[in-house]
Prior knowledge:
With 279 residues, this protein is an alpha/beta fold. The protein has a single domain (10-261), classed as Rossmann fold (3-Layer(aba) Sandwich), CATH 3.40.50.720. It has ten helices and seven strands. Strands 3-2-1-4-5-6-7 form a seven-stranded parallel beta sheet, sandwiched between helices. Helix 4 (113-138) links the parallel strand 4 (95-98) and strand 5 (145-148). Helix 1 (19-30) packs across helix 9 (222-233), helix 4 (113-138) packs parallel to helix 6 and helix 9 crosses helix 10. It starts with 9 loop residues before the first strand and ends in a 27-residue tail after the last helix.
Amino acid sequence: MNDNSFHGRTAVMSGGSRGIGLAIARALASRGGNVVLLAKTDTPDPRLPGTIHTAVSELNELGGHALPVVGDVRNDSDIARAVDTARDNFGGVDIVVNNASVLDISKTEDLTLERFDLMQQVNVRGTFALTRACLPYLQKSASPHVLTLSPPLNMSPQWLGAHPGYMLAKYGMTLAALGIAAEYAQVPLSSNCLWPQTTIATAAVGNLLGGDASLQHARSPEIMADAAIELLSRPAGTDNGRTLLDVEVLAEAGVIDFTSYGGTPPLAIDIFVDAVVSG
């Protein structure tokens, strides 16, 4: 698998205090990358582990150079502070990771419009706004990448109808990423989407998708981190406008055995994915 050094490359990530985002940030930092985290988690939450400060401390201990920006991806001035932090401390932005996302799989009549608006603001607007703010620096980078954690556009009635509010928010992230890929293809800039084939063992999954029992049948966040590193290591423009599952990226890199990522069979298929491939 591609394991290029990230020395001298700077990533700006929304969220990242825990879960998949933190796993990706760890992978970047352990390879010498600079990471600016934009997250709200200034103080501990009794339901969820970690804050932006514990995450940054861990990233620096791994050998990276990480900085916290306490803020909300819904707030344009907070996004500007994150981008300015990357510019002032590291000289620019090479990588954007659109990780922040709100999960609410309520049925349409059970989903309040307040929650609908929150998902649209964080997932769709946040992805668009953070990417937009970084574009002036991405266009100057030798290897500009945008990685958005959102699913392939699965138009089967099953997934269109399972939870339309959440579907609109996650597919909106994907469409934003594909739009940037097409608009900036000549830079060249790589804008791709990455999504897990199975559920991932995170606090969010445990709290919202079935408790401790669901975590037993989920893979570790490191599978998404390894797939992200593989994509971000590729020359900009060689892969662009793709919506990929973690296992697809790793298979392209020659990985065929995914048992090291854990999960007790049967593995739980993730939302918007039709089938689980053995391995």
